[in-house]
């Protein structure tokens, strides 16, 4: 018996990697009965007579997992959003951030295609950069020119983020996620599609989940987040996914404060003092309303 990490799942086979290489395995027969589904990223116990004929015997406890894409034990997420084509959406970025925070994954925000912006548009993006950095997030701006060389400062910074980490790449369709991976490791030659001008969005090119060795770490090349709803979240849990709110919500008078109409709310006070951004708070209210409506439906 040996231990290793599942680095790829395809057509009922799991590819387990350890210091001896990669072994093609099937799941144990009783996994289905025990409702265990191995995921890419899982640390597992397995046995294999040879490289192509192994069985996973046990799946160790996970520190986190995502349903779509199905992957576990993620350290961080590179959230790739374009400044233009498609236009930057702080509402969509905050939606992604909430999902990432809820799973205890560290986000790194990458805003691509900033070279397509007019000077006033670039100034606006840099304001967003300052705002998110003030919250504590890493924000890296990249250009299309960056995405032809991995020696630029921006690419060197991204590579330093990846080292020794298990990373998932997420974000809008058509922002250049596959292109970014190809720059970070050109020999990957991942298929990319240009943004569809007819649909105004990118076409999904990735078919399965796989952890790729890049920059001294592992990056998940995945089909991306197909669902960003809040079915699993309770209304009182939402503010803990906004770090600037999480730092003060314990000071609210009422436990379970929703930071809307309750008296002596520390979050509302921080908002008045300018310590919490109005736009972020508005997005919080949008998501809170969505969670409450979802709970009513179910």
How many β-strands, per DSSP?
13
Which CATH class of the largest domain is shown? Answer: Alpha Beta
Low-confidence segments, given as residue ranges, are 194-206
Shape annotation? globular
- The helix content, as a percent range, equals 25-40%
CATH topology of the largest domain: Rossmann fold
For the largest sheet, list the strands in their spatial order: 10-9-8-11-13-12
Instruction: Please indicate the count of domains.
Output: 3
**Rg estimate, integer Å:** 21 Å
Family: Belongs to the TRAFAC class YlqF/YawG GTPase family. RsgA subfamily.
Pfam families: RsgA_GTPase, RsgA_N
Organism: Alkalihalophilus pseudofirmus (Bacillus pseudofirmus)
Subcellular location: Cytoplasm
SSE inventory with pairings:
Layout: E1 2-10, E2 13-18, E3 21-27, E4 43-50, E5 53-59, E6 65-66, E7 71-72, E8 76-82, H1 90-102, E9 106-112, H2 119-135, E10 138-141, H3 153-162, E11 166-171, H4 177-184, E12 210-214, E13 217-221, H5 243-246, H6 266-272, H7 278-297
Parallel strand pairs: 3-5, 8-9, 8-11, 9-10, 11-13
Antiparallel strand pairs: 1-2, 1-4, 2-3, 4-5, 6-7, 12-13
């Amino acid at each position: 018996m040996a231990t290793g990490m599942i680095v790829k799942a395809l057509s009922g086979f799991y590819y387990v990697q350890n210091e001896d290489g990669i072994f093609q395995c099937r799941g144990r027969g009783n996994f289905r009965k025990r409702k265990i589904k191995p995921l890419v990223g899982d640390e597992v116990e397995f046995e294999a007579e040879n490289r192509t004929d192994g069985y996973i015997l046990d799946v160790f406890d996970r520190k986190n997992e995502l349903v779509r894409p199905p992957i576990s034990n993620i350290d961080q997420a590179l959230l790739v959003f374009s400044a233009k084509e498609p236009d930057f959406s702080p509402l969509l970025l905050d939606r992604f951030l909430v999902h990432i925070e809820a799973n205890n994954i560290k986000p790194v925000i990458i805003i691509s295609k900033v070279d397509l912006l007019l000077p006033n548009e670039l100034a606006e993006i840099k304001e967003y950069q300052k705002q998110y950095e003030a919250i504590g997030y890493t924000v890296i701006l990249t250009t299309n020119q960056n995405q032809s060389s991995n020696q630029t400062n921006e690419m060197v910074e991204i590579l330093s983020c990846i080292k020794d980490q298990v990373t998932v790449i997420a974000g809008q369709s058509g922002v250049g996620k596959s292109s970014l991976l190809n720059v970070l490791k050109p020999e990957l030659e991942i298929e990319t599609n240009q943004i569809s001008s007819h649909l105004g969005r990118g076409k999904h090119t990735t078919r399965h989940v796989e952890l790729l060795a890049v920059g001294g770490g592992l990056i998940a090349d995945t089909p991306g987040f197909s669902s960003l709803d809040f079915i699993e979240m309770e209304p009182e849990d939402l503010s803990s996914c906004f770090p600037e709110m999480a730092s003060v919500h314990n000071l609210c008078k009422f436990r379970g404060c929703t930071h809307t109409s309750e008296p002596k709310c520390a979050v509302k006070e921080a908002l008045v003092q300018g310590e919490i951004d109005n736009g972020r708070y508005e997005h919080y209210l949008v998501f809170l309303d969505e969670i409450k409506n979802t709970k009513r439906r179910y």
